[in-house]
Amino acid sequence: MTDSRHALIIANDRYADQGLKKLRAPAQDAAALERVLHDPQIGDFEVEVVHNASADLMRRRIQGFFNDRRRADTLLLHFSCHGLKSESGELYFAASDTEPPLLAATAVASQFVRGCMSATRAGRSVLFLDCCYGGAFSRGSASVRASGEVNVLESFAKDEPVSGRGWAVITASDSMEYSFEGTELAENSAPRPSVFTHAVVEGLETGEADLDADGNVSLDDLYEYVYRHVREQNPHQTPKKAAELQGELHLAHSRRGGIKIVAVPSPSPLRAALDSDDFLTRQGAVTELCNRLQRPELAVAEGARQHLGEVAHNEVQPLADLAAGALGRIRLAPSPHHLDFGRLPRGSTPPGRSVTLHGPPLARHCLVQPNQAWLRVDPTRSGLEVHVDTAATGHLSGDLVLRGVADESVIHVEAEVAPAAEDGPTQTEPDVPHDSPPPKPRVEDKRRTVVVEPPRTPPPPKPEKPPRATGDRKQTDPTTSSRRAPALAGAALALAVTALAMLVMTVQRGVVAVVARADAGVNGNIEDDLREYGALTPLIVCLITGAVALVAGAFARHDLDARRKHYTRGAASGTHTLTSVAKGLAIPALTFAVLAGIAYLVGSGEW
Predict the structure, then answer these.
(1) DSSP reduced 3-state for 374
(2) Which of 52, 410, 562, 600 has the fewest CB atoms nearer than 10 Å to its CB?
(3) E strands of 380-431, at which residues?
(4) CA 84/CA 89 separation, integer angstroms
(5) What is the DSSP string of 38-78?
(6) What distance in Å separates the CA atoms of residue 186 and residue 137, rounded to the nearest whole number?
(7) CA 293 – CA 138 distance, rounded (Å)
């Protein structure tokens, strides 16, 4: 999103001139559009609404809206009113005091709006026209017919804005919908409630307008969504668009699920190897998919993730475990999961707190959505930097919701904002670690308006570290690693190595017993030889230690998943590595030990 986003909504549904019928849609349209555009989780615009204004006031507000802007600004102007075309072909927007015979004096000319858009210094300007168009009042006996094109886009495209600045115009319709009969609108051409603005609000509010599912609603996404929606509701109404933009313009965040990436399919030789009948060939293909999962090209990594998901569900256990282990490493892993800014004076600008996102590029690629207007988030090379707005006093508690390709994660943020007159950390001595970066200069942010009434009495003093949420038995630093899972994983690996060593010992002693049995001829007994050379004891130990190794590894993974916030990234990665190696050693050792035991039970009587 850009640093400064502003929207002006002009909605007129009452007119002094009796010839202009009252429109039924603008009032509710304006309220709904203001809500979604102002929502910091959706549009994050600073919104102004002008309702039933005179032509003079409309011109003042429009020109003021486009004046004094910066290159980084994004501007959105929305009209919901009558659009009238003069006999000379000029388009006007009707105000509350518009008189159809005197359009030039009492209405707002499209040329005036076009001139304001061309002169602004804002980097991008977007105009939405949700108007019912009609021909102007005629002094003669013949009225302007309702059929025909208004050519709205042609009117706005003839004077392009200053070079390098982007603009776009989307109109709900480009056709005349009514005409005047005498001094009144035609009886059969009364305007209908708007489906255009309703589609805009619905697409932004639900996130359905995010057609490419990238976490943002672009101008192209919104137009395609609105076009389909309007055409379904009214086949005779055709929204149109004209634009001159460099790059994509993101109008809003999407509230849909996790981020979706258009995957690049794995190469055909790799897919063929996955379908091979040879186990080692399939194992090599799965290993290659694990390597592709780490690639910085997100589309390539996403293709590998999807194929590994199929392997984890459909392959034999060793390969399924290998795929599942690789998929587990692309889960969202922010550190820390809890940020406490402590006690802050109102109006101060505390330094931001850093959150590190661990894992390969695909794991770090996520959409961050604050659930409170006072939360600010900036991306960094290693993750995120979180800021709080101290405009309002009181206890602040909110969450940052992180949505990735595979899962979601939540970072809880707290702060206590006290009146500036109270004792507390000063702006130069905030309650933060000594190694925190120096505070950044305060920059006025007009994107959000937070109105929170301060409490009538000062809040009671709180301890330096507020108590943790109910359910936590002790205050534990989320970044401190618990030792349980790594210890269990280490024990599992030791047991697996022991099982493998016992298997080797069993094989060695079994071979000696078989040779002794062969030398004894018809008088020999394999059962006696096996006992004599001690082949059964290491076999039993192998079976026990291998089984216990698998159980210990399972407990380690379960504890890691259940209490993930108690482990650092290094501890989690080490646990995964140790349990994977332990499983890779214990399963073959157990398999061969079981086969050897079955062979002993079945064949000892025959030898």
Answers:
(1) coil
(2) 562
(3) 383-388, 394-404, 408-418
(4) 9
(5) H-TTTT--EEEEEES--HHHHHHHHHHHHSS--TTEEEEEE
(6) 11
(7) 69
Which pLDDT score is estimated for 89? 80
Q: What single letter denotes the amino acid at residue 138?
A: S
Q: Nearest to residue 1, comparing CAs of 49, 37, 44, 51?
A: 44
DSSP class of residue 329?
A: T
Amino acid (one-letter) located at 458:
P
Q: What confidence score (pLDDT) does residue 181 get?
A: 42
pTM of the predicted model as reported, rounded to 2 decimal places? 0.47
Tell me the helix, strand and coil percentages in the chain, rounded to 5.
40, 20, 40
- Give the β-pairing of 408-418 and 394-404: antiparallel
Cα separation of 506 and 546, whole Å? Answer: 14
Strands 91-93 and 108-109: antiparallel
| Alpha-carbon torsion, ordered 543, 546, 551, 553, to 10 deg | 180
Q: Using alpha carbons, select from 193, 78, 87 the residue that is nearest to residue 135.
A: 87
The torsion defined by the Cα of 75, 80, 84 and 89, in degrees rounded to 10, comes to: 30
Can you read off the two tokens belonging to residue 362? 């695909």
**Which ranges of 234-316 does DSSP label H, i.e. alpha helix?**
268-274, 279-293, 298-314
In 10 A of CB 372, how many CB atoms? 16
Chunk the chain into consecutive blocks of 10 residues (it has 607) and report each block's average pLDDT, rounded to whole numbers.
80 86 75 89 90 95 93 92 85 92 92 91 91 60 45 63 70 67 46 75 85 81 91 84 84 70 85 90 92 91 89 88 89 91 90 92 86 86 90 89 84 90 46 47 39 42 46 43 77 89 86 75 68 80 90 84 72 81 88 84 64
What's the rounded Cα separation, in Å, for the pair 442 and 373? Answer: 18
Instruction: Provide CB contacts within 8 A for 170, sequence distance 6+.
Output: 126, 127, 128, 129, 219, 223, 226, 239, 240, 241
Residue 176 sits at φ, ψ, to 5 deg, of: -70, 135
Please give the DSSP secondary-structure letter assigned to residue 449: -
